[in-house]
Every structure is written in structure tokens, then in C-alpha cells.
């Protein structure tokens, strides 16, 4: 595991964006695993800036996103499809048909989960997976559980996660109770993992994830077993490490 410390959010975003841009420049056909949440917003802004300066070309990239809320269409402002379109895809030349986000409106959840795993497999797996971390230690929406869920599946969101994400909705009652998330297997099979974290609220969970026991009660702790994990975090998130 490599831990890169950044003084602040902007620097964290720039360092993480550098890793993604190096991947795309060296391997233009890369499959990028992408993440949502507030943490990676600065990474996307930096990548857009470099794209506009002609420094990166995303035209051959494919992307797979980690997760999506159940019951929200891609037009819903809080859906992760909407987030990705507005915060990244609409501003770069990554062809929209090369982008993948689970379908939160799928009627047949099992079929949608299988379809999503097949998409990842047919792309040959993920070259570089960007990850944030939730306050429960979740990655994607893999919440604390008795086992690590391997494949794409539907999760009941943890109350702590619902409260954390309520800031994006009118109130906590508006936050969907369920989400579809890529499983631990696809994440762990990514060739490279890039975890970003900022702020003091992530300090304790980051420390437990990176140095505590490996347990499904802290889903991100499984990342310790990956042989190419880079963590880019700001000073506040690294305060207790
Ligand atoms: C969300 C997403 C995760 C994200 C996490 C942290 O619920 N499903 O992929 O990493 O929570 O979000 P934030 O970066 O806003 O703290």
C-alpha cells in the first residue's frame, strides 16, 4: 500500500487526478472504475481542466461506476448517473456509450446485477478503480455485513450512510433505502486501486480500514489485501495514522 499525503483537498484532488491521467495517457484504452460522493468532485474538476488544455484524451476510455440508488432515474438530480454526467462525462470526450452505471430503475434486480457483472467482465475487468470511503467504512455501497459480498448486488443502506447522504436530498426520508453496488470481487480484481479521502470525519474509519483487522464489518479493510493500492488523503483524514 502506498499512502500519499496532501496538505489539503485541492492538493489531494490534483495528486489523485495525476494518477488517473497517467493511466489514461499510458493506456488510452483503459477501463476506469469511477466513484461518486463529494470526495472525488475535485478529481473530476482537475481532469476536466487538463482535458480542456488538451493534455488528456478520454476518447478510447471505458468507464464503470461503482453504484446507483434504487428507484432513481438517470435524470434525477441525486442519481449517480446524473452526477457523473454533470460532473464529468458532459465535459470530456469520453463517449457516453462507453460509460456504465447500474440501472437504478431495473425491475428485475437480479438480472440487472448479472448484466452489470457481465459488462465488467466483457470489458476485461477494471484497470484503475477510483474509490471514496463512507463513514461506515463502505466502498461503493458495500456496507458493513457478516460477509464480503462478491458480485454486484442490492444493498439496504446503513442508517449512518442515509444520514450522511441526506445533505444532498431535501431530508433523510428522501434518500433511497436501497442501492445497487459493484461487489468486492470486481473492486479487488481491478489492477490498481486509488482511494481518496479528506476531512477529519474520515480519519478514524480510514485508520481502521488501512491498519485494523480485515473484516466485513469494515468493508474497506479488504483493500489491505490488494497489491496495488494507492491512498491519497489530506492531512485531516490522515491525522490518526
Ligand atoms: C457514497 C458513495 C461512495 C462514497 C461515499 C463517501 O455513499 N456510495 O462511493 O465513497 O459515500 O461519500 P463522500 O465522498 O461524500 O464522503
Automatic annotation (TrEMBL):
Pathway(s) it belongs to: Amino-sugar metabolism; N-acetylneuraminate degradation; D-fructose 6-phosphate from N-acetylneuraminate: step 5/5
Protein name: Glucosamine-6-phosphate deaminase
Active site, renumbered: 67, 138, 143
Protein source organism: Caproiciproducens faecalis
UniProt keyword Hydrolase, yes or no: yes
Gene Ontology MF annotations: glucosamine-6-phosphate deaminase activity
Positions of the Glucosamine/galactosamine-6-phosphate isomerase domain: 31-227
Gene: nagB
Protein family per UniProt: Belongs to the glucosamine/galactosamine-6-phosphate isomerase family. NagB subfamily.
Amino acid at each position: 500500500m502506498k499512502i500519499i499525503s496532501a496538505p489539503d483537498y485541492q492538493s489531494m484532488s490534483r495528486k489523485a487526478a495525476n494518477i488517473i491521467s497517467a493511466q489514461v495517457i499510458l493506456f488510452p484504452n483503459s477501463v476506469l472504475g469511477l466513484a461518486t460522493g463529494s470526495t472525488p468532485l475535485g478529481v473530476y474538476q482537475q481532469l476536466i481542466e487538463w482535458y480542456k488544455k488538451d493534455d488528456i484524451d478520454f476518447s478510447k476510455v471505458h468507464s464503470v461506476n461503482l453504484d446507483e440508488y434504487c428507484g432513481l432515474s438517470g435524470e434525477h438530480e441525486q442519481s449517480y448517473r446524473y452526477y457523473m454526467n454533470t460532473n464529468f462525462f458532459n465535459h470530456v470526450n469520453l463517449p457516453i456509450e462507453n460509460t456504465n452505471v447500474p440501472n437504478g430503475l431495473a425491475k428485475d434486480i437480479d438480472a440487472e446485477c448479472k448484466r452489470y457483472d457481465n459488462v465488467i467482465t466483457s470489458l476485461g475487468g477494471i484497470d484503475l478503480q477510483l474509490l471514496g470511503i463512507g463513514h461506515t467504512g463502505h466502498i461503493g455501497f458495500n456496507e458493513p455485513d457478516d460477509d464480503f459480498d462478491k458480485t454486484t448486488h442490492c444493498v439496504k443502506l446503513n442508517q449512518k450512510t442515509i444520514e450522511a447522504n441526506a445533505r444532498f436530498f431535501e431530508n433523510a426520508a428522501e434518500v433511497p433505502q436501497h442501492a445497487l453496488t459493484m461487489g468486492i470481487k470486481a473492486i479487488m480484481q481491478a489492477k490498481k486501486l486509488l482511494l481518496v479521502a479528506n476531512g477529519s470525519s474520515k480519519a478514524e474509519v480510514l485508520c481502521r480500514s488501512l491498519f485494523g483487522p480485515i473484516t466485513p464489518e469494515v468493508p474497506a479493510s479488504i483493500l489491505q489485501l490488494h497489491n496495488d493500492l494507492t491512498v491519497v488523503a489530506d492531512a485531516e483524514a490522515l491525522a490518526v495514522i
